[in-house]
Amino acid sequence: MPRPDFPKTILEFQARFGDEQACLDYLLVCRWPEGFVCPRCQGRKAWPVTTRALWECADCHRQTSLTAGTVLHKTHLPLQTWFWAAYLMTTSTPGISAVQLQRQLGLSRYESAWTMLHKLRRAMVNPERTLLTGEVEVDECEVGGVEKGRSGGRSRIAKAAHVVVAVEVRGQGSGRIRMHVIPDASGPTLYNFVHETVAPGAVVHTDGWGPYVLLAKKGYDHRPRSQRAAKRTGNTEPVMPRVHRAISDFKSWLRGTHRAVSKEHLQVYLDEFVFRYNRRRSPMSAFQSLLGLESHHEPTTFREIVAQGPGTTRAT
């Protein structure tokens, strides 16, 4: 059974997911698009357990939850609330803060809204993401702190977080992007990011920052170009405009939507920005990913999210 197109308006969304049963029906289609299949015996016949979101196999009687492996598993909130949260997060161009989500969903506790958003952000991560290909621009920046530069263009601010960014070149525009918090801007750190992000054989464009020379030594087609050298030769073409635009857009988005973000949780906000950018033309795919319908997710609690911090995951 094919999944329906993404609702284009709030009224369409309300009509499609107007009650808990509609949400359960949608989960059923997403989990078993070709019909029920028992994970234990591969049986094809089952009946619903009406008191819970479970289906019981007619052959081996194993009960399987529709929400298992999704961010909805073991939730105490209505499915409708989660569906609305994912919809608002998907369709709101600048994103949505926990305060805004709490107000729009009528949640009594701020912690509930904050936990929902962080669970949804963790669902943005795809451990099997594909590597960037073709030509790729790579640069680093600092987020937070008082941004005062020094000779060479890299700051020594202790409070700022180092972030490295990669952007695919697609004609005059940009393809997919990747962003990750890094401990420093050293050669080994930058190489590890490129190695985990960019496919072998890709052309990697960077500025003239010295540690990038390690890329060529490791076999990458590295093509550095500094702004100063370009000016000396009279070349007025912008140096790496796509990655610089991505960095600028991220900082503007972070300031405009979330204002204050802890350094410990910065990675999940990078993940959200990357997810939004890479799925900007696929709202239904984004919606399904947020609910955890395209990959497996273990349930997490508010305390676990606070204790674990951002982890080392990356968005697709």
From TrEMBL:
Pfam families: DDE_Tnp_IS1595, Zn_ribbon_IS1595. PANTHER family: DDE_TNP_IS1595 DOMAIN-CONTAINING PROTEIN, SI:DKEY-17M8.2. This is IS1595 family transposase. It comes from the Bacteria. Residues 131-278 form the ISXO2-like transposase domain. Coiled coil: none annotated.
